Amino acid sequence: MNSFMKFAAVALLMGTATTLFAQEKEEEKPIYQFTETVNVKHTPVDNQGSSGTCWCFAGVGFVEAEILRMYGKEFNLSEMYLVRNAWSEKVAKFVRMHGNSTLSQGGEVCDVLYMIDKYGMMPEDAYSGKVIGEDRHMHSEMNEVINGVARAVIKNGNKKISPAYPKAVNGVLDAYLGDVPEDFTVDGKKYTPKSFAEAYPINPDNYIEICSFTTEENYKPCMVEIPDNWTWTPAYNMPLDKLMEAVDYALENGYTLGWAQDVSNPGFSRKEGVGIVPEDPKDENLWKEIVTEKKVTDEDHQKAYDNWDAGDDHSMLVVGIAKDQNGNKYYKIKNSWGDAGPYKGYWYCSEQYLRQYTIFFTLHKDALSKTMKKDLGI
C-alpha cells in the first residue's frame, strides 16, 4: 500500500470513528430538554451517601437558600450536626411514648428548623460527621446500634428508666459521627453553634407547611399522618389547585420550598432525571419519548395517599420552574444524591407529578400571597 492509500485509509477510519462518536453522543442526549423560566438562588447539590437523611439535606439546602435570600451569605452547613441532635430527640420521644413512636433515620424538612432553633448550627468543615474512615455517609450500622440502645431502655429491666441512657445514645453518636466541637471560626470570627445561629436567625415561627387532602377541612391546620412526621407538625390544608398556585407564587417571588414526596413509583426515573405521571404506565414509549400525562385531580391525590401509593419516602428542594421542548411545565428540583443523572444532581418533575405525589411543602410565610395568607388566617 502506497503512502497516499495509507493516508486515505487512516482518514476513512478517523471519519468513521468521528461519526460513530457523534452518533453515540446523540444517543446519550436526554429525552427531555428543559428551558428554565424561574431559578431561585440556592446552594450547590450535596450527597447524602448511604444514609436515610434526605430530610436533613433538603432542610439544610432550604435553610442555606433562606440565608442567601435574607442575609446575602452563602454557607455550606453541617447536616450531621442536626442529624445527631434529631436522633437524641427521637430516642427521648420513643422512650416517653413507651416505644409507640417512630424511631428511624427519616424525618421532615421542618425538623431542621426545630433543631437549629434548639441546638444552633455550624458549617460542614467544622463537623462533617465522617469519622469512620468512609468518604461518604454510611449510617446503617449506627442506626441499628441506636435502635438497640433505645429498645433496651424501654424493656425497663430495672423497673424504672435510668437517667444514664441519654449518655449512651450520645456515646453512639460520638463514635459514628464524631465529637461536637465547642466552637469554630467562620470568616475570621469565633462562634458556638448557638451564636452562629443567632447571627443568621431562622425562626421556625416564620415557616409553615401546606398540604392538600380531601379528608381535611380546607384552609385549616391538620395533622399530616405519616410515620416520619415524628414531631407531629401540622400543615395548612387547601385544594390541590390552590396548593399549586402557592408553589408557583413562592418560586416566582424568590422563595424555595422544602418538599416531602414519593419517588417509589414508575413515573420517577433516576436514569432520565425526570418525574412524570404517565397516562399509561405501561406505555411502550415511556422513557423513549415524551408521553401523555394523566391529569391529576384532588381525588386522585387522596387515593394515592390512602393506598400508600404516595408517601414521604424522599425529601428534596424545589428551586425553580421549567418547560420541556413541547412546552409542558415542570419544576426544577435540587436532590441530594450528588451530581448523578443527566442534569447533574437536579431533577425535573412535572406539574402533574407534584399534584399526584406531594405530601406537603415547607415554606416561609412571606412566600404566600396576601390572598392566601388571608384564606389561611395568617
Radius of gyration in whole Å, from Cα? 24 Å
Query: Strand content of the residues, in percent?
Result: 15-25%
Shape: globular
Which sheet architecture does the biggest sheet show? 11 strands, mixed
Termini separation: 86 Å
Summing up helix and strand content along with how strands pair, one would put the structural category as: alpha+beta
Number of DSSP-assigned strands:
13
Unreliable residue runs: 3-13, 16-26
Key descriptive features of the protein:
alpha+beta; two-stranded antiparallel ribbon; 16% strand; 38% helix; 378 residues; 11 helices; eleven-stranded mixed β-sheet
Task: Give an overview in words.
The protein has 378 residues and is an alpha+beta fold. It is 38% helix and 16% strand. The protein has helices at residues 3-28, 54-71, 79-96, 109-119, 140-154, 165-177, 193-199, 240-252, 298-306, 351-357, 370-376, and strands at 35-39, 184-186, 189-191, 207-211, 221-223, 234-237, 257-261, 268-269, 274-275, 314-323, 329-334, 346-350, 358-364. The strands form 2 sheets. Strands 1, 4, 5, 6, 7, 8, 9, 10, 11, 12 and 13 form an 11-stranded mixed beta sheet that branches. The longest helix has 26 residues, at 3-28. The chain is globular and about 60 Å long. The chain starts with a helix and ends with a helix. The model is unreliable at 3-13 and 16-26 (pLDDT under 50).
